[in-house]
UniProtKB/TrEMBL annotation:
It comes from the Bacteria. Belongs to the class-II pyridoxal-phosphate-dependent aminotransferase family. Histidinol-phosphate aminotransferase subfamily. Its EC number is 2.6.1.9. Residues 29-356 form the Aminotransferase class I/classII large domain. Its cofactor is pyridoxal 5'-phosphate. Homodimer. The lineage of its organism: Bacteria, Pseudomonadati, Pseudomonadota, Alphaproteobacteria, Hyphomicrobiales. It catalyses: L-histidinol phosphate + 2-oxoglutarate = 3-(imidazol-4-yl)-2-oxopropyl phosphate + L-glutamate. The modification N6-(pyridoxal phosphate)lysine is found at residue 220. GO terms for molecular function: histidinol-phosphate transaminase activity; pyridoxal phosphate binding. This is Histidinol-phosphate aminotransferase. Pathway: Amino-acid biosynthesis; L-histidine biosynthesis; L-histidine from 5-phospho-alpha-D-ribose 1-diphosphate: step 7/9. The keyword Zinc-finger does not apply.
């Protein structure tokens, strides 16, 4: 055998592990582990996808001009400052590839999205993890961790899997405290769900900045997770760098068509957000009454903490729920071993989870 090996550092990357989607021996399990929208995509997006699939032999628009235009119209942006990707995951990797190298550092929070660490290591950089306060991004902790080697700061706002967020004033304070050669990456995957008055996804901050990027996705509220479409709004110099390193056709034609239709169907988005708001309120009322702590949620999921008393652990709850055909997301890999994350589902799905958790916490059923 030859001596071909990956470059130093690749073997240290822990591969991303998605949430479970099946239960052995059970058909039609209820999957609430991946923060997928229960209302599905806009019917207009389905129609656009099917029509575009009639010409699958044709390469897509490599500059995705129509998609950038649709995003720009929806949010009042300059389309020239938009870059699209194969999900926002690809954009994190492209940003790290373009702006980091061996010995550089990127900061993320202790319960931050796992792909930040992976993208950093894949680019040859060193991930620097900082503590959170009350399971929430701590601006002071991030600023204290900045060194001469820092090149990027990743924060998800709202964060996954905690579901917490920081107000836009805190985001601005973070950005103002960073050196001009450090890029702030604001991951707004769940931005559409947040209805708090002190929240902004970061569009205005990015518009007036040379070292801040906001990323968004069509996987969550728009329901296009299978199609892998994300986008970034960034300064011109960042856009130029990303367009130099990305693949020439990194977003498929049917995916572009579906995304254009989805972002134009604001009524469907509004319905999804209203359904989510209703159930966040109900879950945060009912679950604590069962003895399950719930972190204040603003996205499309709730993070539940189990006390561990009398055997009521997250692991035991996960096993019990699976016996009922229900899949939630354990979060031990995010240093939250006493928690499970539940995606907001349809009415009947949420009622089913509540009933199962009631039986588990009360020690009834099997």
């Amino acid at each position: 055998m030859g001596d071909l090996t990956p470059r130093d550092g690749i073997e240290k990357i822990t591969p991303y592990k998605a949430g479970e989607s099946k239960i052995a021996g059970q058909d039609n399990a209820l999957k609430l582990s991946a923060n997928e929208t229960p209302l599905g995509p806009s019917p207009k997006a389905r129609e656009a996808f099917l029509k575009a699939a009639e010409t699958m032999e044709i390469y897509p628009d490599g500059g995705y001009g129509a998609l950038r235009g649709a995003i720009a119209r929806r949010y009042g942006l300059n389309p020239d400052r938009i870059v699209c990707g194969n999900g926002s995951d690809e954009l994190f990797h492209l940003l790290a590839q373009a702006f980091m190298g061996q010995g550089d550092e990127a900061i993320h929070t202790e319960h931050g999205f796992a792909v930040y660490r992976i993208a950093t290591q894949a680019a040859g950089g060193t991930p620097v993890e900082v503590p959170e306060t009350n399971f929430t991004t701590d601006v002071d902790a991030i600023l204290a961790a900045v060194t001469g080697r820092t090149r990027m700061v990743f924060i998800a706002n709202p964060n996954n899997p905690t579901g917490t967020y920081i107000p836009i004033d805190e985001v601005r304070r973070l950005h103002a405290g960073l050196p001009s050669n450090v890029l702030l990456v604001l991951d707004g995957a769940y931005a559409e769900y947040v209805t708090r008055n002190d929240y902004e996804a970061g569009i205005e901050l990015v518009s007036g900045s040379s070292n801040a990027v906001m990323t968004r996705t069509f996987s969550k509220v728009h329901g296009l997770a299978a199609l892998r479409v994300g986008w970034a709004y960034a300064p011109e110099n960042v856009v130029d760098a990303l367009n130099r390193v990305r693949g020439p056709f990194n977003v498929g034609g049917p995916s572009q068509a579906a995304a254009i239709a989805a972002i134009g169907d604001t009524a469907h988005v509004d319905a999804s957000v209203a359904h989510n708001e209703k159930w966040l309120a109900r879950l945060t009322e009912i679950l604590p009454g069962l003895g399950i702590e719930v972190l204040p949620p603003v996205a499309n999921f709730v993070l539940m903490r189990f006390s561990g008393e009398n055997g009521k652990t997250a692991q035991a709850a996960d096993s019990f729920l699976k016996s009922r055909g229900i899949i939630l997301r354990p979060t031990a890999s995010y240093k939250l071993p006493d928690c499970l994350r539940m995606t907001v589902g349809l009415d009947e799905h949420n009622e089913r989870v509540i009933a199962a958790l009631t039986d588990f916490m009360e020690g009834t059923g099997s």
